[in-house]
Specification:
The chain has a 5-stranded mixed sheet, with helices on both faces. Strand 4, helix 4 and strand 5 form a beta-alpha-beta unit. Helix 3 runs parallel beside helix 4. The protein has 163 residues and is of the alpha/beta class. The longest helix is centred in the first third of the chain and has 13 residues. Helix content is 26%, strand content 14%.
């Protein structure tokens, strides 16, 4: 008996952005949780990342605050962004021609890593810092390097996990 295949499966974009969103849930940052998922040209997940501290830097001992009287007591000196973590987590060789799904538009520092890694396409869920100099510089570099950046178009589909 031949049965028709399911028609209500999620799209590639929904799948990969969902993985990025799930990765963001691993972040211990109390303010902003960001996730990233790197995908090969043939739709294979190569790496994932989320914002957090480097291996060996305890998230119980390093600060999570944005501002402090002592400038060395804020998270910005210590945390690594999700995009950089995803790039550094990959151990399989080249990322040339890959796509990056990320929940928040990358800063200028991550844009440099994205460009240098050879990633050619960026799909982002949120651009809440679009007017900052960091994101404006990021977009300038990405465009100059030929990296496309496209907003994720939510389908409105609800996906629920029970763990």
């Amino acid at each position: 008996m031949i049965m028709d295949k399911r028609e209500d499966y999620i799209s590639w974009d929904e799948y990969f952005m969902g993985v990025a969103m799930l990765s963001a849930m691993r972040s211990k940052d109390p303010n902003t949780q960001v996730g990233a998922c790197i995908v090969s040209p043939d739709n294979k997940i190569l790496s994932m990342g989320y914002n957090g501290f480097p291996i060996g830097c305890s998230d119980d001992e390093f600060p999570w605050v944005r501002e402090s009287e002592d400038p060395y007591d804020n998270k910005y000196f210590y945390s690594a962004h999700s995009e950089l973590n995803a790039i550094l987590n990959y151990r399989g060789g080249s990322l040339d021609g890959c796509k990056l799904y990320v929940t928040l538009f990358p800063c200028n520092e991550c844009a440099k890593a994205i460009i240098q890694a050879g990633i050619k396409s960026l799909i982002y869920a949120d651009d809440k810092y679009a007017d900052t100099s960091s994101v404006r510089a990021s977009k300038r570099m990405l465009a100059a390097a030929g990296v496309s950046f496209t907003p994720y178009k939510p389908s409105g589909r609800k996906v629920e996990l029970t763990l």
